[in-house]
Fold each of these.
Amino acid sequence: MSILRRKTRTCTIGTLKLGSEHPVAIQTMTMGKTENVAAVVAEIKTVEDAGCDLVRVAVPNFDAAKAIPLIKEKIKIPLVADIHFDPRLAIAALDYGADKIRINPGNFFDRSYLEKVILLAKKKNAALRIGVNAGSLEKDLWAKYGAPTPDALVESALRWVKFVEDLGFGNFVVSLKSSRVPTMIEAYQKFATAQSAGSLPPPPLHLGVTEAGPTLPGAIKSAVGIGTLLSQGIGDTIRVSIVDNIAKEVEVCREILKSLGLYSKEPDIVACPTCGRIEIDLEKMVEEVSVALKHLKKSIRVSVMGCVVNAVGEAKESDFAIAGGRKAGALYYKGELYKANVPEAELVPELLKLINKFPEQQDLLFVSRIK
């Protein structure tokens, strides 16, 4: 079943377009000091060809703002400047060429400066992210709701959307993040419903569970929160916030999108979890197939199954498949048996030959071979 995405306007960020008419974009944020240009560029290079569509850098001072053009000239994806508290830094980042500014308006205490930021972004054809979270929730909303509840986050977001749109600016996205997954889900759902009632197409949504935590629990929280919303058609760009390197963040983002059929730039590898029935070295095979197809930029479904319980059924739903048996197995192509009784040691090499064989797969010829 395909996902019907919530209709939005398009937000343009450098060469990237966000919104319901475009693929869900993956983004991350660098870990190093922005003014350390060489290190930040090296960090960005680890994700540019791994599916990352835009990258954010922290701008806590003017030295970081000055580094923006030096970084931009060495990377291929749009650059976002992350600004808090001081709108002068946002103005500097725009002057230095940031493609997009991330701000949480609730922690900007001078609205006249905030207006200057928005009008300058409009003049420079830059984009904005209007962010709302517990750390930036306005004092009157804390008093009204007693906590950063979903309703508090939604009221804040709607307030700032109106503020920005009243200034004639529409090239922005919105985020309503929380470290609590149920709060995050409900906030985005309610905001999406409220915005859909308007006469104009609503802005795109940036999804994320903020401060998600260490790699495994953070990835799970993000998958549940982001995945739930995406499955409902809500969300146009995603960031996974975990305590790990940015390549791992991008990898988790890809897997979330792949699980919902929203990512078409690499294979989807299906494998059984192993059990006492298996009589082949399935773990080794899955690893070999994963490595061989790692750099393949094509959406194909490949299943590597260990025994007859689910192997044939899964093979019938895959483009290419291994169905394991007793120290041997069978190969399937497009759900049909292609070759039976293949010795265990030949299963992965024969699978890779099969992937490379068919005319519609000729762009896969660089797939590495297992020796």
Note: Residues 364-371 have pLDDT under 50 and may be disordered.
Amino acid sequence: MQHYACPGPVARDLRTFEPPRPTRAGRRSTLLRGTRSPDRTVEFPVNRFWLPTAVALIVAGLSYGVFEATRPSPVPDGFLYGNGHVEGTEVRVSSEVPGRVVEHRLEEGNQVLRGDTVVVIESQSSIDLLQAAQAELTALQQSRGSLESQRELWEHHAETAARQRARVRDLRASALASDSDVDQAENALEEARQQARALKAQSAALQEQIAAAKARVGLAETRLSNHDIEAPADGTVLIRAIEVGEVVQPGAPLALIVDLDRLELKVYVPERYIGKIRLGNPARIAVNAFPDRFFDAQVSRVDDYAQFTPRDIHVPEERTRMVYGVTLALEDSGGRLKPGMPADAWIRWDDAKSWASCCPAP
């Protein structure tokens, strides 16, 4: 307890007495002793750094716990892991001729067979072209027929003129015909032969024109047949890009067909493991859509060249490592797998190992 002296008689009245404020040194000593000052409550020192430290320790512990809980299990011995996206042989249906779509038989998810007519395009313009080509061909054939008739006629005239010239020469030898008669007979024969040769040349030229006209007719027929677009392969319609009434241009995609019975999965294997893989090695595929089952597959192709790890593929190696692409041919999935599905794959390169009941992705 501190004692204060009264400054004088005026301060003897305790009701009006105010003790002086303690100095900073006195306040510090009071806090250290834990005593009460005349005008302050008891205060204890607080370390302002312990709370952030505690929070950091808690976060670190939680992070380590999540890491331990989510850390993938190692791939069993005798197996290799990879992942990628399910792929299929995509066939784009397109038109070779422009025109307006008047009918289609494309429904997404439906199966089509090779040769089925899936789209019909308005064909009036092609019909007109075909008719024009056929008319031209008919006219040329008629012209050539007329020329052939004339050529045959002049060849007959030439034969007659040749016999006449022979008779005139016999008569001239008997002095019954003059030299003028012989010249006329020879001129008639030469004229007939020239006419026959000219008509033969014209007929040959027309024959070439007829051949070109036949080609145009064939082209017009092919163009007309292209208005009925057929499915180029067996498969399932994944995408339909047209509607009835739309105008399409040559080469524009109309639909996308994929054979779901011949799907593939391409994974990337680190270079040091590629020597363990052989064609025909069995594999199992897992997708998120069917977490409780595996799909059988086998190695169908191994790339002949190495490459850096693709950006969209994650393998349990450094991204700067060289990898080889390995294609897995999926067996019949019953139409469950679709192109574009992300999938995990395990390749068994050691036949002595048995399949594990669960193969977690590393």
Note: The two ends are 73 Å apart (CA to CA).
Amino acid sequence: MTLSGYQYAIEDRLSIEQRVQNAIEVDSLWQGPVLGPTIAPKKHLVFVASDLRNDGVNSVVKGMTESMEGLDWNLYLLDGKGSKLRQSAALNRAIMLKPDGIVLGGIDAKFHEDTIKTAQHFGIKVIGWHAANEAGPNPELGLYTNITTDAEEVGDIAALFAIVNSGYKAQVVIFTDSNYSIAMQKANRMASRIQACSDCRLLAIEDIPLDNIAAEMPTAIAKLLNQFPNQITHFLVINDLYIDFAVPSLTASGIAAEDLPKSISAGDGSHEAYRRIRSGKHQLATVPEPLFMQGWQIIDEFNRAFQGESHSGFLAPVHLITRNNLENIVLNVGVYDPDNDYRMAYRKIWQ
């Protein structure tokens, strides 16, 4: 598989290590908005979920629900159940409910562009969460704003961590899913970073669909270990799920634990990922999203939209979770929740 890459000047080691350290550090300083309109009264929102079985979607909903406590707002959930057909039906149902605002929760806005335009026609504000590749407003798709982390920055930090962890001699295999453009953004950036490191080597790129990981990963891992014996230092993956299904094959390989590839995930942050990182086995790091905080941000962005103001422009900084900073994870629910007083900051804006 061939990836189109970016060209970088090779940074000095001090600069690279500082970037990695900045991503690992727990920043208690609120970097989001401090000014905005007071909260609008009596608003009705509908959250159209890609799949309510998805922990990420559920955590965003939890953040929204928490932020609405004490407000005269209500939230109705519709479940797309992982099917584009069902998601389309749910979005049409949402419009029929005549809400003030609709959230596209992990649903591809491009696929539903015409339906979103219909919502706009009825004066409904639409905000995306992971509904497009880029964060921020997207008038062409009908999105007041889209909330997500910077996919290329996430891929960059994951690759840089592998480079530093290997002593600038990383031998890498990348796992991605070409069905998703955001996954390819991450994979492109990771590949470019590895290729820009003179003593590193990109051994292979494995294109395995997320919905077929369970079936394909055992064969892929066996093939890679045979093709590159004692060579692979790191797996770079676009989602922790790849590691979930790599571990059994790695364990059964008979290779000593210290000689097995170490994995770094460019996005997700699951229960299993945090368990592996804590144990020090198989996974070194993940780049999670602040899901509860993003739920609060959605409410703040809607409040701005309802009152004719522009979006806040806030983009959460990329954070790398390693064994040394796991204390910043709400372990009982497996969510990265920044200790930056974002709840207080938003309440202060709305009061």
Note: DSSP finds eleven helices and 13 strands in the chain.
Amino acid sequence: MAQLVLGIETSCDETAAAVVRLENGKAQVLSNIVASQIKDHSPYGGVVPEIAARKHVEKIDDVIGLAIREAGVELSDLSGVAATAGPGLIGGVLVGLLSAKAIALGAGLPFIAINHLEGHALSPKLTQDLDFPYLLLLVSGGHCQILKVVELGQYKRLGTTIDDALGEAFDKTAKLLVLGYPGGPLVERAASLGNPKYELPRPMINRPGCDFSFAGLKTAVSRLAQSLENEKGELSNECVNDICASFQAATMAVLLNRLEAAFAMSELTGNNRRLVVAGGVAANQAIRSAINELCESFGWQYFAPELKYCGDNGAMIALAGAMRLEAGITSDLHTKARPRWPLDEISAPLNLKHGYGKKGAKV
């Protein structure tokens, strides 16, 4: 039986809704609407939670309505309504969650609360045939984890960042170098024009396990930029490009080293040796290429979502909802929004081999 699900995503600064049909294991995206808040947050160099929540309130009705119209369906055609219930900025999460609950209640439809990270974990399935189990590298502005995805709803964390997420390090590097917002694509663009000639630290490389750390690398970039500015008077475009290239090279070295360790820790063998790279940072072409080459050298299959599904979107939430609905899993309308929600509940609280930063590890 086909599942037709409306998915709503408002965990950060994208107001998104989509309709996805799931039939015989194949997903079809009927609509995928994303309203960006980049212009609203650009003056501040990052996401301002209060502004994000207010913009979600302003846009959510129009975004949902457009998603339904573009899909060419009516509410009565839907099998269920799914929404991100966390983790994320609590004000934004509440907007999408309450909207989904209202639609489900009013239309008499099942409601499915989705972990935002599960949406990313399943996102390649929107356009590709991908079987369970697989290894997942989840890299975004708020998270950097390696997990073993056993099946829907069963996840085992193998490694995580002990301080900053990788996307956060990209954004803060961009802010430091006055590149603008959002920082990730701008650092990637500058890196493509530069020479990775500066030696920057590669935190955690060759240590036991596959945890990450990026706070020290971010600090090293700050000190390098300050040193060059003191020496030259100001940072030229060439200097900025070289710093970005050196930063990106260091992050890729860390990712590849940690993935090599994860390959062994995953205990996946034969045709099950599949790696999925998902999340906003998965849109970085240099990182995608480097990880693809790593997989080829180790005999692993490589999967990544299409670029439009790397960032936050409603389609991945709708797919996760459809898969859960197909498995007979629904949620209570009293489900609460969660600012923190580990994908692998059994691994929380974290038991990190190398400790964690003063603000705690990202989950």
Note: The first strand starts at residue 3 and ends at 9.
